[in-house]
Amino acid sequence: MSAAIDTHELTKRYRRVSALTDCTVTVPEGRVSALVGPNGAGKTTLLRILAGLASQTAGTASVLGGPPRQDPAFLAEVGFLAQEIPLYRRFTSEDHIRIGAHLNPSWDAALVRTRLAELRIPLDQRVGTLSGGQRAQVALTLTLAKRPRLLLLDEPVAALDPLARRNFLATLTAAVADAAGGLTVVLSSHLVIDLERVCDHLILLAGSQVQVSGDIDTLLAEHKILVGPRKDTAPIERAHQVVHTVTTARQSTLLVRLKGPVIDPAYQAEDVTLEEMVLGYMGADEAPAGKQLTTVGEES
Amino acid sequence: MTWLVWRQYRAQGAIASVLLAVAAAVILADGFHIASQWHSIVVRCAGNSACLQQDGPLVNGVVSDVPYLSLLVPVVLGMLWGAPLVAHELEARTSDFAWTQSVTRTRWLTAKAGWLLLAAAACGGVLAALTTWWSGPINAISASAFAPGQFDTQGIVPIGYAVFAMALGIAAGTVARRTLPAIAVTLGGFIALRLVISNFLRPHYIAAVTTYYNVTGSFMPRGQAWVLSQGAVSRAGVTVAAGWGDLYPALPASCQKLLPAAGGGKGASLTAVFSCMKAHGWRGFVTYQPSYRYWPFQGIETGIYVLLAAALIGVTFLIVRRRDA
């Protein structure tokens, strides 16, 4: 299957600040990818470059077979929803449906009307007066009405309450199922829990760099938490990639990406959850690998 | 795209249309009032020019501020419609919505800026036409249509100003990315450019004509001419502007003696002074733009503003297409 997104050493600098550094990622077609990272990691920058709203300083990006560009055919295939839920606050949902109909070659107005009726969101109410959750639903549904092949969602659920969040993700999941593999999604969030149920692919950004990316199941199988006595971890570091180390008075806990079986019988290998893996990489970014961290409350 | 523009501006457009209609009604009513005054004076004086000169200046409108309207409206449109055109979309992030639909930013901007520039031109045109018509009798009496102030509110130049102010607002908003600073830049930039062009550039669109005349006689260019300067010039080429304050020190002593030292000459002695000046080779002069240049000047000035507007819109397109949203 071909790649919906393929970037190579994508870099974006704002004056001297680097927002994205040498980002090389591939998202196969039909996947739902979680773009995870702490605030300021470069998630928004990456998504805006992919949507054609921003341009890179260096590197290349290929989206649906070509570079992101201001071209009606490209724009028609990519749906983008920004964190701020950009809608015309004084316009009604109906106004937005009509704008979309005028600005897009294939426009599924019935989809929006049906979905908003299901959600009991009145079409004739100004979107500025809707609740945050309703507004996000309107914006997502409008983005889906374009019938895009790629959907780029930049922290759309960050400001929503848990129920609205669940409804939003339900709409998204239904759209992915309807498209039967024809829709690729990149959904960014700094909360892993939101993404665990809907995503099957992961891009982890921290400190403007890609820490890890790939199929979630494969990544989970490759990563283990090793718990063992506190001792020199150098042999482990030679054999595997140690992502993150937590050391207490008596024991060491290591998040490792395995390159083979763990031979040392002193370590007990445990499966990782997505959240543990993501937090491990984020922690690794905060404290460079090799530096030992001490859990608060315990003596070192 | 047109539908989006219509949806975004229909409320403002309706308000503007109502205001324009009210203004038009007031100008029309006042204009007919002026015209009837003028007509009755023409009938009463029956070709007697002294009578016309005496009663003519009495002709005036109840609403003497009409010309200010066509001075003010272009820049107000630029501030209220032009400045937010791009800036407010960026501020409200609605550009993220508009620029990720299946139309290019170029087409988006073409539609928005195109319709608004057209609206500005229409507003400027309607007000200019009304003001020109309203000013007809006053132009006939004072022959001042070419003078700064009147020239700026009549003919076709208000269309140029309106288009330029709109373009300036749009460009300022695009560069500043925020509405409020863009409004300030539009107001300041428009006023500054208008002052510079009307004071320093306009008098020189075409080299002015200077007519010399016998200093004991008098000369005034015919029709709606624009007098730039007038005064007297000596045989040696010393030029002095009209007005005794400047003239007195420049005169030969023999002529100065004919004037009371205070400078306020009496009628009899003024004739003697002029004769004395003539004897010393002084001539009167008037430098002016003749009446027939009124429309060429209107065309040149409108052209300058439209070209500047085109340059600003060109820059706006470059920025909107290239810069990160």
Description:
The complex is a heterodimer of chains A (300) and B (325). By secondary structure, chain A is α/β, with parallel strands linked by helices. Chain A has 2 domains: 3-207, P-loop containing nucleotide triphosphate hydrolases (Rossmann fold, 3-Layer(aba) Sandwich); 218-294, no CATH class. Chain A contains 10 helices and 15 strands. Chain A has helices at residues 43-50, 72-77, 93-103, 109-118, 132-145, 162-179, 192-196, 216-222, 234-239, 274-286, and strands spanning 3-14, 17-23, 26-28, 32-36, 58-63, 78-81, 150-154, 184-189, 201-206, 209-215, 223-229, 241-247, 251-257, 268-271, 293-294. In chain A, the strands form 3 sheets. In chain A, strands 6-7-8-4-9-10 form a 6-stranded mixed beta sheet, sandwiched between helices. In chain A, α4 packs antiparallel against α5 (132-145) and α5 (132-145) runs parallel beside α6. Chain B is of the alpha+beta class and 325 residues long. Chain B has 3 domains: 21-64; 65-205 and 293-322, no CATH class; 209-289, no CATH class. In chain B, 66% of the residues lie in helices and 7% in strands. Chain B contains 12 helices and 4 strands. A 4-stranded antiparallel beta sheet of chain B has the order 1-4-2-3. In chain B, a hairpin with a 5-residue loop joins β2 and β3 (239-241). In chain B, α1 (2-45) packs parallel to α5 (105-134) and α3 runs parallel beside α7 (157-176). The A-B interface holds A 48, 51-55, 70-72, 75-76, 78-80, 82, 84, 86-89, 91, 95, 98-100, 102-105, 139, 146 and B 1-4, 7-8, 92-106, 321-322, 324-325.
